[in-house]
């Protein structure tokens, strides 16, 4: 069982019991998971103004080293925009100009513009999560995330946070553990 205690002082329930705290694509993806796996993902309601990692951790007593950030990155090659989602521990930084640029096979990579990230994922900025991303996107996880017994990630909205195991994240479609993803 995943320990939902990573959510600090918050009380979690199985994520599918609170679809109001999930973005549509997240709820849909959770329904597609094996019911046992989906039942191990907890969700807790938060103040949307406290969705950013540092504010969340300070307000609810969640440790930064058990929080993960999902960032959408983009780069162009031959006029084609390539997107990927990267999940790194909040205490690290995604290596956008190194590992990510090489893996996207682009000359320059950067964080996707907010409007693109929100529009393409169907999730709120500051709540984007690896669960329910566009099917064609690669999902790259840092080894620290994949090895975690439980991490806190967004719920697709700014009103909730999920507690999920790194093992479950690594089993998501298109997920790959990338050794040099974060520093």
Features:
183 residues; YbaK protein; 9 strands; YbaK/aa-tRNA-synt-asso_dom_sf; globular; alpha+beta; 5-stranded mixed sheet; single chain; 4-stranded antiparallel sheet
What does this structure look like?
Helix content is 26%, strand content 24%. The protein is of the alpha+beta class and 183 residues long. It has one domain: YbaK/aminoacyl-tRNA synthetase-associated domain (YbaK protein, Alpha-Beta Complex), CATH 3.90.960. The strands form 2 sheets. A 5-stranded mixed beta sheet has the order 5-3-4-6-9. It has a 4-stranded antiparallel beta sheet with strand order 1-2-8-7. A hairpin with a 5-residue loop joins strand 7 (151-154) and strand 8 (160-164).
Task: Summarize the SSE layout with pairings.
Elements: E1 13-14, H1 24-32, H2 35-39, E2 42-45, H3 53-60, E3 68-77, E4 80-89, H4 96-104, E5 109-111, H5 114-121, E6 139-141, H6 143-146, E7 151-154, E8 160-164, H7 166-170, E9 175-177
Parallel strand pairs: 4-6, 6-9
Antiparallel strand pairs: 1-2, 2-8, 3-4, 3-5, 7-8
Distance between the termini: 29 Å
Give the count of structural domains. Answer: 1
Order of strands in the sheet with the most strands? Answer: 5-3-4-6-9
H and E order: EHHEHEEHEHEHEEHE
Instruction: Kindly provide the name of the CATH class.
Output: Alpha Beta
Molecular shape = globular
**What would you give as the CATH superfamily?**
YbaK/aminoacyl-tRNA synthetase-associated domain
Biggest pleated-sheet summary: 5 strands, mixed
pLDDT average, as an integer?
A: 95
The number of helical elements comes to: 7
């Amino acid at each position: 069982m995943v320990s939902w205690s990573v959510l600090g002082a918050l009380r979690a329930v199985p994520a599918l019991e609170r679809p109001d705290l999930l973005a549509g694509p997240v709820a849909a993806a959770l329904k597609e998971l094996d019911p046992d796996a989906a039942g191990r993902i907890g969700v807790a309601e938060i103040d949307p103004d406290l969705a950013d990692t540092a504010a969340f951790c300070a307000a609810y007593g969640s440790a930064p080293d058990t929080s993960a950030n999902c960032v959408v990155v983009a780069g162009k090659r031959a006029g084609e925009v390539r997107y990927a989602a990267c999940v790194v521990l909040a205490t690290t930084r995604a290596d956008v100009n190194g590992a990510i640029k090489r893996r996207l096979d682009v000359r320059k990579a950067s964080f996707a513009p907010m409007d693109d990230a929100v529009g393409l994922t169907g999730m709120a900025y500051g709540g984007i999560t690896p669960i329910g991303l566009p099917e064609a996107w690669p999902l790259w996880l840092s080894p620290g995330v994949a090895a975690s017994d439980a991490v806190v990630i967004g719920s697709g909205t700014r009103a909730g946070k999920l507690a999920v195991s790194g093992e479950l994240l690594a089993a998501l479609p298109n997920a790959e553990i990338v050794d040099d993803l974060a520093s």
